[in-house]
Amino acid sequence: MGSTEVIGTLKPELADVLGLPRSTPVVAGAVDTSAVAVGATVRDFAPHLYLGTSSWVGAHVPFKKSSVRHHIAAVPSAVKGRYLAMAMQSAAGANLSFLRDKVLYHPDELLSDEQQPDVYALLDRIAARVPPGSRGLIYTPWLCGERSPAGDPSLRAGLINLKLEHSREDIIRAFMEGVAHNTRWMLEPFSRFIGQSSGIIVATGGGAQSDVWCQIMADVCGRVIQQPHNPIQTNARGAAFIAAVALGKLQFDDLPTLQRPHRLYEPSRSTRNLYDDRFATFKEVRKRLAPLYRRLNPSQETTP
Questions:
Q1: For the Carbohydrate kinase FGGY C-terminal domain, which residue ranges apply (predicted)?
Q2: Over the stretch 255-280, which tens digit does the pLDDT of each residue have?
Q3: Domains defined for the chain, CATH in brackets
Q4: Distance between CA 120 and CA 105 in Å, rounded?
Q5: How far apart, in Å, do the first and last CA atoms of the chain sit?
Q6: Which of 95, 157, 165, 292 gets the highest tally of CB atoms within 10 A of its CB?
């Protein structure tokens, strides 16, 4: 069954509750990853980045293959005749949720009775005033192991090079930079997998609402990041596009004209050397600590 197949009409009782005609067609649709991909970009080899609780990079490609070593695969997509190449990481926004719920606002004696503010907006504001590189602090965002490109469920998160001069402001930015370094690490084999190592990356998901995080992604990855309008709604737009194609209102070839960017984030030349060095250190940390994590966390399974 294809994603654009009309499989019937609404059940009468549901149509009545929703206030819709009983003749309203129901389209097969797609899973969230495929819907996000359609909502982001349907051009071949054009990558998108999803920043939610977990994270992935994906792109529509005209072939089906897999990389066991790097845990990357091109699987059936919502677009007929195309596959969706995907590399997934276990935790992205989950790191900021962890910081919010387990460190900054953990319900213990240190937490005041005041209502929590708009935490993510505050995190953005704080991270923006910390210099790139977080004053030498490096965060590894492996709260529940990692999928691509390492496929190592024993890896764990950590703050590296923490010293007395650091504050929680540095820690907040280090969390964001750590996820960005992890994304760059994933992009290396993914770019080889799809045969494209340049071009704009469309950022989607709740994390892509952050201007600060999008700029950090651009600077760390050395790629232009495109932020669509309401990036958190990309999967809903994708589902709507699929339904429109199913009903003959659109063709997939029409979608690029409807996927206009809200903002582009160019990588800064001034931070390139700094982030190249930090990224090399990030990968070295993983290489050196991986044996210790395997000893500390035997027989672990990556959380979906």
A1: 51-247
A2: 999 988 999 999 999 999 999 999 99
A3: 45-58+88-231+263-296 (3.30.420.40)
A4: 12
A5: 25
A6: 95
